[in-house]
Amino acid sequence: MSAINIDNVVKNYGSLRVLHGLDLDIKEGEFVSLLGPSGCGKSTLLYCVAGLEEINGGRILFDDRDIAGLNSRERNVALVFQDYALYPHMTVRDNIAFPLRRQKLDKETVKGQVTWASETLGLSELLDRMPSDLSGGQRQRVAVGRAIVRNPTALLMDEPLSNLDAALRVHMRTEIKRLSRELGLTVLFVTHDQEEAMVMSDRIAVLSNGHLQQFGEPMEIYRNPANRFVAEFIGSPKMNMITSADQKGVLLGLRPHDLTPSTQQDDQDAFELTGELALIEPAGPQFFLDVIVNGEMIKATTDDIGSFTTGSEIKLSVPAYRVYRFDAGTGDALSGTSISAASRKNTKP
């Protein structure tokens, strides 16, 4: 497997610049997700690494070797697409073996590699089936098997789970993570699903409009977002944003899971809000509370709704060290999370 260095990469489509000097250092055997909304450039970057798109500036290196001028086959990367791209007239066995046969490898080598890949992915009993006889999850495993069978330098995946139902997505992300660990694969994984990225990744690169917003470990990005975009994109439900009562040009960010109904035992250093409870949403072991504060809806959480009723006044609190501060103009995170005593009792209904 290879380390991948993306060095000041620029990509244009005519006069439109879609990648703006991106820098990423991906370690050998690391699982990195490219995360962002549609149109942010994540798939374009993946195709540049794969050799399906040419870059207009910068360099892409595999183990410090500049791969400019190498086509996708010469780069020895495996690409798994969203739609599986299986050959419908071939059995599972032949689909997995296809890239090896294109390399004109001998039959015994092909047979051994297909057996290894099918056993690794739990496909041994399905080798003689056609793709039309498989479930969505099975087809995705065949696509992964065809990708890993030739021991690629890196495994590149372009939203491979988006066509699966919720239960299968959870199962397959576990399988892909397990596989990457067992085989020591370097994985570059494109997704718009922040939960998927948080669960699967060693590190996450958050993109917006072709710019890298932040690159780091999942919980580092969650707890220390670089700017408002990252703060609101990472986390579900997304972070609440309110205007600071006493700091001009400052937005305060409050994560719903940190914001809970006040109790008698709350820390004296807590940040407090008072509002009108508009809606209670059951969500398994927790309840989401939609609360109107100064005419704006914010979201909080609780494990026990107790005697709360819609339309009533409710007091919420969050530890002061969990209050995030952002420049209202630039969106950049401001250093520290301290807030003044005046702002700790911030708003009324």
Characterization of the model:
The protein has helices spanning 42-50, 72-75, 92-102, 107-120, 136-148, 166-183, 194-200, 218-223, 228-233; strands at 4-13, 16-26, 31-35, 57-62, 65-66, 77-80, 154-158, 187-191, 203-208, 211-216, 240-243, 250-254, 260-261, 271-283, 286-293, 296-302, 313-318, 324-327, 345-347. Helices cover 25% and strands 32% of the residues. With 349 residues, it is an alpha/beta fold. The model has no long low-confidence stretch (mean pLDDT 89).
Please outline the helices and strands.
Elements: E1 4-13, E2 16-26, E3 31-35, H1 42-50, E4 57-62, E5 65-66, H2 72-75, E6 77-80, H3 92-102, H4 107-120, H5 136-148, E7 154-158, H6 166-183, E8 187-191, H7 194-200, E9 203-208, E10 211-216, H8 218-223, H9 228-233, E11 240-243, E12 250-254, E13 260-261, E14 271-283, E15 286-293, E16 296-302, E17 313-318, E18 324-327, E19 345-347
Helix pairs in contact: 3-4, 3-5, 4-5
What keywords describe this structure?
six-stranded mixed beta sheet, 349 residues, 25% helix, 9 helices, globular, alpha/beta
* Oligomer category: single chain
Q: Please, what is the average pLDDT? A: 89
The largest sheet, given as strand count, sense and whether it forms a barrel, is: 6 strands, mixed
Distance from N terminus to C terminus (CA atoms, Å) equals 57 Å
Q: Please state the structural category.
A: alpha/beta
Strand order of the largest sheet: 6-7-8-3-9-10
The helicity comes to: 25-40%
In terms of DSSP E residues, the strand content is 25-35%
Q: Categorize the overall geometry.
A: globular
Strand-and-helix sequence, N→C?
EEEHEEHEHHHEHEHEEHHEEEEEEEEE
What is the overall number of helices?
9
What is the β-strand count? 19
Radius of gyration: 24 Å
Low-confidence stretches: none
